[in-house]
What we know:
Number of helices of chain B: 9
Helix content of chain B: 55-70%
Number of helices of chain A: 8
Shape of chain A: rod-shaped
Oligomer: heterodimer
Distance between the termini of chain A: 31 Å
Amino acid sequence: MRITLGMQTNETLLNLNDQQDQINTLSQEISSGKQLLSPSDNPDSWSQTMSTNQTIREYNSFLSNVNFATGWGQTTESALNELSGLLSQAKQVAISAGSSTGTAESGALATQVNGILQQALSIANTQYDNQYIFAGTATDTAPYSINSSTGAVTYNGNTGPIEVKTNMSSAADPGMTTVNLNGEAVFGGSTSGGGSNVLNDIWSLEQAITSGNSSGISNSITTLGNDFNQINNQLTTVGSQLSTLTSQQSALNTMVTNEKGVLSNLQDTDIASATVKLSQAQTAFQAALQVTSLLDNLNLSSILSGGAAG
Amino acid sequence: MASLALTLNTAEQTLLNTQTELATSSNNISNASTPGYAEETAVQTENPAISTMSGWLGTGASITTVTQARDNFVEQQLMNAMTSDSQYSSLASQLTTIQSTASDSGNTGISEALGNFFNAWSTLAQDPTGSSEQTAVYSAAHNLVSAIQSTYDQLNQIGGQIPGQISSTVTQANSLISQIATLNTDILRSSAVSQPNNLIDQRYEAMDSLAKLIPVTFSTNSDGTVNVNTTEVGSSVNLISGTTVAATISSTSGISGGELGGLLQAQTSLNGYLQQFNAFVGALGNQINTVSGLSVASGSTASSISMSSNFLSGLTSTQLGAIAQNMSNLQDNTVSFSYPSGSSSTLQGYLDSIQQTIGTDVQDANNNQSFYDSLKSQLQTQQQSISGVSLDQEMVSVIQYQQIYQAAAKVIQTASTLMSTAINMVQ
C-alpha cells in the first residue's frame, strides 16, 4: 500500500483521539463513581435503576407507615394495660364494698369508683398523633361520653378500620395493615340500644355502692370480671399486631438494603477494574504518542538533509 | 552536425521537462496537507523519432499533461460514508441533548415527583384530616405538575430549535449545489486548454461538503463535468446535470441521510417522545380523578395539566382515609396508555419506558456513528493512499529529476565543447 502524509496524519489523529476518549470515559467513571451516567450507557440497566429507585422510595414510605402503626399500637397497648389495671382495681373495690357496712365507707368507695370511671373515660378518649385511637375512622372527634346521672354512654366513633399501606398491592393482597382496634370491641358501643359498655359497668358499680344495693354490687363483680377478660383479649390482639409490625419493619429494612445493593451493582463503577483499565489505556496512549514522535523522524527528507543532496 | 544540434535540442528539452517535473513535485509537497488536494503527476511521453542515415534517432521526451490521482469509486464510497457519519452524528448530538433533559435515573425529576405524590397520599392515610399531611399532598401534586411541565417545556424548546437548523442546512446544501454547477461550467471552459486540476479539486471539496449534508451520487461526463444525484424517499433525484442545476432541495424533500436526514430523524423521534409524555399525563390525570373520585386534575396534555388546590376540603376523615388508601395503591396498578396504542404498565413503569426508548435511540445513533466514523476513516485512508502526497516518493523523484537535470546539463556542456572543437577545426 502506498503510504502518504494525509494517511499517516489521519490515522495517527484517529488513534490518539480514540485512546484519549477511552481515558476520558474511564476517568469520568472513576471520579464520579458511576458507570451509568445516562440512559444510553445501558438502556436496560437504566430502566432497572429507575424502577429500583421507585421500589426503594415505596419501601421507605411503607417503613414510615409501619412506624406510625407501631406508635399507634404501643399507645393502644399502654392504654389497655392501664384500663385493665383500673378494672381489676374496680373489682377489688366492689369486693370490699360487698363486705362493708358503714355509709361513710361506702361514700369513700363510691368516690374511688368515680375516679376510676373518669380515668377509664379519659383512656377511652386516648389520642395518638392528635387522633382518637378508639374512634374507628372518625378520629377527629372524642368518641366516648357518659351521662353522669343516667349512666348512658354515647359512642361517636364507628367500627371502620384505619389502614395504611405496608406492602406492594396486588390483586391477591392489597398490602394494607390495620392500625387501630375496633373501639366498640374494647369498650362497647352506645348504651341507648341496650348494649353493654365498660364505662357503663363502672358507673353501675358506683351507683350500686352509693345506693347500698348488694345484689347490684355482686352483679358488678361479674360484669367487671368479664370486661377485664375482654380487655385482656384485646391486649393479646395488639401484642400480636405489634410483633407482626416489628417483623415487617425488619423485613422492609432488609429489602431496602437489598435494593440498594442492586442499585449499586447497576450504576456504581467497579473502581478496581476501572483503575486497571485506565492504567492500561494510559500506557497504550503513551506508546502511541511515542510512536507518533518516532514517525516524525522517519522520512526521507530528514535523512537526505544530512548532505546527500550535494 | 545535424545530430549535434539535435543533441543540444533534446538536452534543452530535458532541462525544461525536469523543471516542469520539479515544479509539479514542489506543488505536491506544498499541498501535502491541503484538504481535497490530489497528487499531481507530470505525464512525460517520448518524442517522435527522426530518420537519419544512421537510422531512427530519438528526439527526447516532452511533458504532455499534468494529471491527478483520483479513484472515483473510492471517492463515491467515501461520500456515502460521510453522509451516514454526519447523519448519525447530528442525530446523536440532538438526541443526547434530549436525553439529558428527559432522563432522571428515577431519583429526580418527574419520577421522584410522582413517587413523592403517591407517598404523600400514603402518609395521608395515617392522619386523613391532619393539616400537615394534607398540605404535603397538595404540594406533592403541585411539584408533580411543575416537574412534568418543566421537562415538557425544555423538550419543546429543543424541538423548537431543530427547524431553524434544518432550514440553514437546506440553504447550505442549495448553495453548494449551485457552486458545483458553476465549477462544472469553469471546468468545461478550461478543459479546452488542459485539465484544470485545481478546479477539479475544488469540485471534489464541494461534493464532499454536500455529501455531509445530503446523500450524493455522482457520475463524470466525457466533457469533464459531473452529474450529481441525491436520494429522496428512496428514489434518485437529479440535482445537477452538467452545467445546470436541475433541482434544489427543501426541508420537505424527504431526504433521509446526511446532516439534514439526521435532523429530520431527530425531529420525528422527539415528536414521539412528546407524544409519550402526553399519553403519560393523560393517563395520570384520568387515573387520579377516577381512583380518588375527586376532580383533582384537569387538562389532559403535559402543557395544559393542572391540579386543583382544594380537592381535599369538605370531606370527612373516613372518606379521606379511604381515598388516601386507594390513591397510595394507584402506584402499583397497571394502567393503559393511549400511545403506543394498547400499551399498559404502571405509571412509574411508563416513565421508565420513555427513558428506555430515548436511551436506546441514543445508543443506536452512537453505535451507528462510531461504525460509520471508522468506515469513513478507513475509506479516507484508502483515498489518501491513492490521492495523497507521499513525501518520500516526492523526495525520490526530486533526486531523480536533479540527476537527470545534471546529466542533461553535462550533455549540453559536452555538445557545446564538441561544437566549438568543430568550429575551431575549420579556422
